[in-house]
Amino acid sequence: MANMAVSRIKREFKEVMRSEEIVQCSIKIELVNDSWTELRGEIAGPPDTPYEGGKFVLEIKVPETYPFNPPKVRFITRIWHPNISSVTGAICLDILKDNWAAAMTLRTVLLSLQALLAAAEPDDPQDAVVAYQFKDKHDLFVLTARHWTNAYAGGPTTFPDCDSKIQRLKDMGIDEHDARAVLSKENWNLEKATECLFS
Amino acid sequence: MDSDIEMEMESDNDGEFDDDYDYYNTGEDCDVERLDPKRADPEYFEYECLTVEDIEKLLNELVEKLNTILQITPSLAKVLLLEHQWNNAAVVEKYRQDANALLVSARIKPPTTAVETASTSAAAAAQLRLSSSSGYRTSSSASTSSLTTAASGNPQQQQQSQPQRRMCPVCASTQPNDKFYSLACGHSFCKDCWTIYFETQIFQGISIQIGCMAQQCNVRVPEDLVLTLVTRPVMRDKYQQFAFKDYVKSHPQLRFCPGPNCQIIVQSSEICAKRAICKVCHTGFCFKCGMDYHAPTDCQIIRKWLTKCADDSETANYISAHTKDCPKCHICIEKNGGCNHMQCFNCKHDFCWMCLGDWKTHGSEYYECSRYKDNPNIANESVHVQAREALKKYLHYYERWENHSKSLKLEQQTIDRLRQRINTKVMNGSGTWIDWQYLFNAAALLAKCRYTLQYTYPYAYYMEPGSRKNLFEYQQAQLEAEIENLSWKIERAETTDRAVLENQMDIAEKRRTTLLKDFFPVIVKT
């Protein structure tokens, strides 16, 4: 069985390498070890989204029973998205759970994830806080997502206002990532974030 | 109990139950009771204990019946019956109305016929309806072109690739056309992949729910294809066992005996929360929910109560903190990640983890739940007071529940002592063994009454305050008094007159029956 998993992964690896998307640099895949059980994927943030210009790294673990069970995928790059946990990078996507089909490939998974970045499903959220912001304060959501893309995925847009607020919290002895997470959650209200951290 | 009070009560009861007393002792030929046991005994329940073979026969008969009516394969008939709670008439009616819609809803056919698999598989789908079990095999050469293009770089592809060969999209190897199988949806995969796929699914406990391997395709794999391809005896057995379990569970009139390692299945046409006793392992259980019999409390409430009572371990705390029951099939679900959109592993019901509402009707209402999660202690002030009050109330009922449970066990010891005492008496020549038999009857009746009494406490706990609750608690108190009275008399059997004891038995049983008649939810008043 494992043999089939390896031969499938090898073929899919080639499929990704030969695909149009790799020419456009929108998806990438590389090996982590020699046994083909773990791979590293990378997807580019789709244009006209807050993730534009960012590169998002994914951890892909291939189970023994692949392709009859789905690969285990999570974001290594931190991301602000309703369907992806801002803490663990866990992804809520049907094809990675019950709707996985043996005929799907790594390429379809990567493209589906890219599509997920372009079209969030706030009614089916993984991260309730992000989803709330997405629906209720959409402008702030776009700003936060863009800021996270800049901070973690090499996105182009900087937000001096955000950075200065994070710096304020850092000066109080808070870890940068914690500060960013709390400020994002509190809609960049420094007072509330401070209250949340110290109460 | 003080003997004065006891005398008083006795006389009270004598007055109150004079009619009953006579009724029981003289009414041997009362045929109302014999003609309609349902009216006389609120717990009367007709059922049969069947073996796995009996049930297989029964299900096969249903399948055969449908086969002959609709001219379909047994495997297809099973799927259709499973989807309709084994209601033959419903299947036939739906089939006559719209066969296509029926096959689509039972996931035999895809909702819309796939465009790419043109004529051959459409014909195969039509064939399927006309009972051809060979409909799974595609010998088509029409759809090969689209598949083989992707195989050009495959290392395993042979140089001299023949036109009759193509690549399986799952294992990526090229194989002759006759190795390929497909369902009504036309998605075609090689034999080996189907086999491994089936085995993987069976290993995970999935049997009749196995679906097609293609993306976005939920067509179900019928039993005969699985059994054609899976050849390992272990896996075949497992598949058949799981499938059988699913069939029994989907049949409303059948229930597995919950006794350890017991293979018996109880069948009854009356689907209600009454007591069934397995004839093999003698386990008594509620027919509706399969747990310990719990009249007068209903299935949901006893479930709630038992979960609450399991509080002496951290397990209960963990269960209440991390798991919830599926709102449809009530299986316990632990959420170990993922979003609030849950799909029950058991019954495939989609629901919201936060509010347990149906996900379909849910949509944008999600945020109600999010608020609830973020801020669970609205009106935090009174919560502590409320919690304390709630605990006090709970303990009141729990202590009594637990007390009766213990008494039941203690009275088992009383029976053992009783047996010894009777033995000594018989040895000493005071009466024969038969003379003292009534004491065992009394003890058995006591256990029966106390069992019911024990289960009145969860019922009372979850009752809304009001006149009905007052009435219930009044009857409960009466029953309790009579039971304690009976218990007292049995323990002092030597000094109690036999007639007095038997009178007390009648009274206690009458109280119990009255309470059940008034409050046992399954009773249909005729």
UniProtKB/TrEMBL annotation, chain A:
Residues 4-154 form the UBC core domain. The active site is at C92 (glycyl thioester intermediate). Its EC number is 2.3.2.23. CDD domains: UBA_II_E2_UBCD4 (cd14391), UBCc_UBE2K (cd23800). Gene3D superfamilies: DNA helicase RuvA subunit, C-terminal domain (1.10.8.10), Ubiquitin Conjugating Enzyme (3.10.110.10). It comes from the Eukaryota. One of its GO terms (molecular function) is ATP binding. Residues 161-199 form the UBA domain. The keyword Endoplasmic reticulum does not apply. Keywords: ATP-binding, Nucleotide-binding, Transferase, Ubl conjugation pathway. Belongs to the ubiquitin-conjugating enzyme family. This is E2 ubiquitin-conjugating enzyme. It comes from Drosophila navojoa (Fruit fly).
From TrEMBL, chain B:
GO terms for molecular function: ubiquitin protein ligase activity; zinc ion binding. The keyword Zinc applies. The keyword Transcription regulation does not apply. Residues 1-23, 134-166 are annotated as: Disordered. GO terms for biological process: protein ubiquitination. CDD domains: BRcat_RBR_TRIAD1 (cd20344), Rcat_RBR_TRIAD1 (cd20360), RING-HC_RBR_TRIAD1 (cd16773). It comes from the Eukaryota. Residues 1-22 have a biased composition (Acidic residues). It is found in: Nucleus. Its EC number is 2.3.2.31. Its main location: nucleus. Residues 476-518 form a coiled coil. Belongs to the RBR family. Ariadne subfamily. This is RBR-type E3 ubiquitin transferase. The lineage of its organism: Eukaryota, Metazoa, Ecdysozoa, Arthropoda, Hexapoda.
